[in-house]
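Hey,

Quick one before I head out. I ran the complex with zinc ion overnight. Inputs first:
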Amino acid sequence: MHPEDDRNSRALLLRGGTVIDGTGAPRFGADVRVEGERIVAVGANLAEDGALVLDATGRIVAPGFIDVHTHDDQIVLSAPRMLPKISQGVTTVVVGNCGISLAPLVHANVPPPLNLLGGPDKYVYPTMVAYVAAVDAVRPAVNVAALVGHSTLRVATMDDPYRQATPAEQARMGELLREGLAAGAAGLSSGVFYATGAAADIDELALLAGITGEAGGVYTTHIRQEMDKVLDSLDEAFATAKRGNVPVVISHHKCAGPRNWGRTIQTLAHIDAARRDQAIGLDCYPYIAGSTVLRSEMVDGIIDILITWSTPHPEMAARRLAGIAQEWNCTQQEACERLQPGGACYFQMREDDVQRVLRYPATMIGSDGLPHDQHPHPRLWGTFPRVLGHYSRDLGLFSLETAVHKMSGLSARQFRLEDRGEIRAGAYADIVVFDAATIRDAATFEQPKTQAVGVDCVLVNGRVAYRCDETGLKGNGRFLRRVRQQTSPGA
Ligand SMILES: [Zn+2]
């Protein structure tokens, strides 16, 4: 028998570790016993009783991390080992953020930003059911929960997504969204910041948010503007969610551009006030640079811009736009035009804002990593260890218990991932074992594809899916269907 098969047919006992259970509660010493897919016992000195023992002495045993903000729709199928994520301790990714989802769409022309996931050859799932089947057939290393993207719905139903949709087109979007939710999608995402979503008014968004709310899903949004109009844009998101009677998650919250640095004091107070009245969550990545497709209106001549890919000039990936413009003897605007289509990191935030948002109690951790970029933002490989190591341990921004909560228990509750995100008897055995003293991100803007340090072992659905000293482990992830809302009696 192959040692891996032997290991996976037996109960597992994680012995001698310190449990941080994901709820935010203080750590405690305990063994954790896993049988099949679930944790069956958490306690002191559990009997071995035929189990294979994994020594966790001196290590933290925590729920596997949930990356609530990803663009991993396609990579979970084409590179299912998911090394950038599993090596950080991530056991579940939420795909389909920012209005961009791989399903439901089959299209000959894939406009930006949908091209973040690949070209028309990748958009081959006419329904969410087809996408779910593809994920479950591949069995990637991590679990997958999916949002239905609003821009994807618009491109699927309109000949021209840059205008207002007709009532018939909106009705068709609603049908596709219902299909996605029925297939188990976690909710709806929008990216009204992007051209493919920007022409939608609040009536269209509220209609779709309402369908999502009825099904018990969540609405996430990359708001219309994160610069001077950030407050108005937050208000639009709150009003949309309120009309749709749905919880909302503000994606990668930030105040971008030098004129807005320091304004997270204002935006977080604004969010706090609105939270008295409706359910609002946030996600955030732990870096001062954002990353997306190349957009000329983001080239202001002030902030630093790092090219991550360029179709006409792949040799310019990993170089600064200012240097390219100098070499080409043109303005940064002109250089940006010549590099299109492409992507970039924009150094558009200030450190105090990033820390303020990370610290905010309703903020979850989401990487927003872009797995198809030639020279990706380091958040793809470093987000979770960076929060645990740099921000929690080294800077003392919050306790390790709080850091873990923001990437497990809080996230599972927000996205209604049942029996995930906690270490307790009965929960799925998605578990990460790491060294609190050494965990750190190693990916940088210069060397972004560098594996983090300090994660020893990761379990997904009860099976060892990653060990720092072992390769070739089989994936055990699956598609996570949204828990159906309880129908109230008589309804
Ligand atoms: Zn976004």
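Residues 98, 191, 222, 251-252 surround zinc ion (CB under 6 Å).

Talk tomorrow,
K.
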